Amino acid sequence: MNYWQPIRQLLMNRSFLWVLFWVNLLGTIYGYYWYKNQMQDTPPVLLPFVPDSPTSSLFFTVFVLLLLLGRSNPFIEMMALMTSFKYGVWCVVVLTMYGIDDGYIDPANIMLIFSHAGMAAEVLLYNFAYRFGAKHVWLGAAWLLVNDFFDYVFKVHPYLEDDRFLSEVAVFTVSLSIFTILLTFWLRQRSA
User: Where are the transmembrane segments (predicted)?
Assistant: First the structure.
């Protein structure tokens, strides 16, 4: 008996997909708004490396739209999985780390923690629907690591509360990229 079948049926239900599409689209728009000041302060050539989370959720939003249209794009699927998982987990860990050290987590950060946890979870739940292969994972791996390079060498990482954990966040970010790459290869192997 396939215990996942009822969950998969819900996840592929058109009404559910439309709700997921609109929630992610609105979250994406809000995410780009959230980054507006940082994007204004960034040289145009570095802009693709700034709004990590909203770009990740944009990939997932497009993936959901493609599901609704009965289509598939392996590149979009891979980017949705890899970037949404990585930046979802990144935000949860980094904001929680600052909150624990501060002894307080701002309500806006609590909202960000929950929404980013949702980003990471939703892309894992749709693993059964992805059709990308190993060559796509290599492209995603390159993107994650190049983005990390620009984030911490050219200082276009998301604004932090302050720099007290900057070196720890940089190490965590690269480690999380490597974990995400390995996880994605493992997920692809399991579903093949």
Answer: 16-35, 55-72, 79-98, 110-130, 137-154, 166-187
In contact, 84 and 20? CB cutoff 8 Å: no
pLDDT by residue (tens digit) across 45-58?
A: 999 999 999 999 99
Between CA 114 and CA 104, with CA 171 as vertex, the angle to 5 degrees is: 40
77-125 pLDDT, tens digit each: 999 999 999 999 999 999 999 999 999 999 999 999 999 999 999 999 9
Whether 109 and 50 have beta carbons less than 8 Å apart is answered as no
H/E stretch holding 115 reads helix 107-125
Per-domain boundaries in the chain: 5-191
